[in-house]
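Work package 3, deliverable 3.1, input record:
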Amino acid sequence: MPLEVNGKSYETDEEGYLANLNDWSPEVAEALAKADDAELTENHWEVINFLREYYEEYQIAPAVRVLTKAIGKKLGKDKGNSKYLYELFPYGPAKQACKYAGLPKPTGCV
Amino acid sequence: MTEKTFVYLNRKAPYGSVYALESLEVVLIGAAFEQNVKLIFIDDGVYQLTKGQKTDGIGMKNFSPTFSALGDYDVNQIYVDEQSLKDRGLTMDDLQALTYEDEDDDWAEKNSMHLVNREQIAELIGDADVLLNF
């Protein structure tokens, strides 16, 4: 199902992930979240921006264990735990945050 | 669950077949099981770790930056066959310097790369509980 943002149409896969990495913009992220009835706060953006930087450097989306550890190191212990990340992204931190970050679905489970 | 030693034997060039990328993906997924993981690069497999790979001309994704993420996945025992490098006119300086941060040592950055001879490789393979050949 294509995603409509400001009159432009973006191709997505059957789970709503962007088909083309280069289609991403903050507006597209907002629209992807809206399609899930989620709202992006500053805390969400911290994680989304972190994921985009990680992908830029390593060409992969990190596994949730790696994400949790790295967030803790970068943003502080109170954010580097699964409780915090699941509260932000109840569908699974890596899975849902990667979707809004325009990254491919991570290999592995959550 | 008892910990097992997993040895991944990487023998093929990075592109032209899917072996190298598949191996790396299995390593990353398998890392979730927190086992004792060792990677060996031998024969054309040593090319997988070379610096400065450019794949624009062959229409494949350059996945070599992903090797730097291995440290984050606690995969930090990487062995390179000395003879294979020599046969191809390469040295360790031609390869990426992979490192990891030691959580038990105040996140000190440590080297993951080890240059080994055939005898040591035979020993590594002999000590493996699970051997995956790519």
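The longest strand of chain B covers residues 5-10.
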